[in-house]
Amino acid sequence: MSDETIGRVAALWRYPVQSLRGERLDTLEIGSKGPIGDRGWGIFDPDAGHIAISARGKKKWRPLVTWQARYVREPKDDATLPPVEFEFEDGTRLMSDRADIDAKLADRLGWPAQFVQVAQSVPAYEHAHVHALTTATLRVFSKHYPSGHFEPERFRPNLLIDTDGLEGFAESGWIGSALQAGKVRLAIDEHCVRCVMTTLPQGGLPQDAGILATVTETNKQHAGIYCGVRQPGTLRLGDPVRLEGG
């Protein structure tokens, strides 16, 4: 595969708290371990002994994806993480740095939650540091299931690539190659296998089991790619994206 421009940066997201909805940004700082501040915080479940991750299927954790979190200021690499502001599905907001934050979260969840910083040694994803998705893939899903809402937010990428005229599951053939956008270089490591989280109601999107069924039937449950960081830098909306090597 020769080097080629395959599209542009169409959207960027960072997720301050594991399993919560994130913040859509115009620029995204990529450090050596992925987007700075991504999944920097989590909600610890003492009964389970680890941070709640909605993707792992425990029903009591699923309401987390209806909540949103935003940093109150930009996080910096190798610096103390700033607090976040929670916004709940009823529009109520809550700051994470208040003394009774654990009690407030526990009241909403119905279990003894604790707001904690995620260890820096724990990756945002099990396989790599950045999750990318293409508009080409979303178009295929929509064609097969027209009544489904295949918004990128269901799939929780950091990077959405508008792949212009490319058709089909474009990124499925990119494993082992690299993406270059601005000064950022990402090694494409692995397919992203989807889970029940794509079907959950969130941010105005309805619950829809047909989302995951379509992904499974049409693309072996894959949607998007996991990437490792080879060159940190800043991603910006509109940046051309090149596919290199392979």
Based on Cα principal axes, name the global outline.
Answer: globular
Series of secondary-structure elements, N-terminal to C-terminal: EEEEEEEEEHEEHEEEHEEE
Give the number of DSSP strands: 17
Gap from first CA to last CA: 5 Å
Which class of secondary structure composition applies to the elements? mainly beta
Estimate what percentage of residues fall within beta strands: 25-35%
Taking Cα atoms only, what radius of gyration do you get, to the nearest Å?
18 Å
Major beta-sheet overview:
7 strands, mixed, barrel
**Mean pLDDT score, rounded?**
92
pLDDT < 50 stretches = none
What's the helical proportion of residues?
10-25%
Write out the strand line-up for the largest beta sheet, numbering strands in chain order. 1-12-11-15-14-13-17
Number of helices: 3
